[in-house]
Amino acid sequence: MKMLLSGCLLAASAALMAGCQANDQAPAVSPQTVAARVVTSQQQQVPIEVRITGTVRAKESATISAQVMGRIQQVTVHAGDSVRTGQTLVVLGNTAERAALAQAQAAVAAAQNEEVAAQSNASLAVSTLGRYKQLQVEKSVSPQEMDEVSRRAQSAKAQLDAARAQVRAARAQVRSAQTMLGYTRITAPFTGVVTARMADPGTMAAPGVPLLQVDRTGPMQLQVPVDESIIASVRMGMSLPVTVDGIGQKMNGTVAEIVPAADPSSHSFLVKIDLPWSSQLRPGMYGSTEIPRGTHEVILVPQSAVILRGSLECAYVLDSQGIAQLRYVTLGHKHGNMVEVLSGITNGERLVDTPEDRDLAGKRIEVQP
Question: Is the pTM of this model over 0.85?
Answer without folding.
Answer: no
